[in-house]
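Q: A small favour: would you put together sequence and structure tokens for a protein?
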Amino acid sequence: MELNQKIALVTGGGQGIGRVIADNLAKMGAHTVLGDINLENAEKAAKNIRDNGGKATAVLLNVMDPVNVRQVFDLIGKEFKPLDILVNNAGITKDGLFIRMKEDDWDRVLAVNLKGSFLCGQQAAKQMMKQRSGSIVNIASIVGVMGNPGQANYSASKAGLIGLTKTMARELAPRNITVNAIAPGFIDTDMTRVLDDKIRDKLIEQIPLARLGLPVDIAHSVAFLVSGQSNYITGQVINVNGGMLM
């Protein structure tokens, strides 16, 4: 229960990797706020945490909407206490070859994946600076480091998120706030399960550990970065990819 009495917000916490991260933080004692544009999913995930003895609250969160983002952070500060942990996990994909990519698909992916993390990070920092402590973890991606055909928008958003992480870390370090990124490889989620078996097999061939990652692999890395065991780690990108990128 290392995170007892801590308040944590996980964006995109209603499903996939975000849901597993939120569940794990709750198991560590944090009161976890699950922010998601799909409130029904967030409420189901929060109820599951509470049913298992944890503390969790679901909130409607559209990370692209600065007004909604401010409202959610104000709610957290008033209903609980200033935020201790932020996990910027919300993200989308709209894949297509660069030469044929629609401008709307570019704009929307950058708005959710990069601007959303900027807006949430800014609000979290304001609360954390007052208490002179806090941890922010941005969920980037292996493709933000190595690129990937058909994902120009997603790769650019995640590469931008890595740059944002490092600048935030430098600016917030004097207030004892750590900011790090996790760059997952290919994780076994709904997003990868829709891939053709041949494509999945080709991916696995490129991974030295010979399997796709699991959401809990990412959740454990988040747990380390927000715990007292990582107080001297900031501005880093932790690659969790089974050795696919070295």
DSSP finds nine helices and seven strands in the chain.
